[in-house]
Hints:
The protein is α+β, with helices and mostly antiparallel strands. It is about 50% helix and about 25% strand.
Amino acid sequence: MANTGLRPRVRIVTKNSPQVVLEQINEKLIDQKTDLQGQVVQEHAFIRIPEEKQHYWSPELHVWAREQDGETIVYGVMGPKPKIWTMFMFLYTGVLTMAFFSISYGIIQLMLGIKADFLWSIPIGLLAIALVYAAAKYGQYKGREQMGLLKGFLESSVEKQVLP
């Protein structure tokens, strides 16, 4: 998995219809020869690691299929559990908001000729953003083996031609 995104993606093209693709995924999940759990709901499939093998950074795979130009494109997005993803989005939003207002206040102080101690929020804000990003990448590193398992499951479930 050489993908550098925070939420790695998989894209597969197949000749089967979206319903057949989702049925193939569902059959493979029911087959119980795999170490994965999941469910197919309407046009989506959610595949995850069994609870006894999960750790804090365990990924999940959200799959959906769309018909386009006579082919079916199967999309998959891997990411952490929703509560982890929400926490990271909250951290990013909080850090960026605090940095924005602190930098604004520091610039106002500077323009008014007052000692601008709040300008220290620029390197502190950048450091905080870098730390949150590094924590996300660390989590992705810890879950890389399980991400490979999820991707392999999807590829083996669908008759496909994998696209970059």
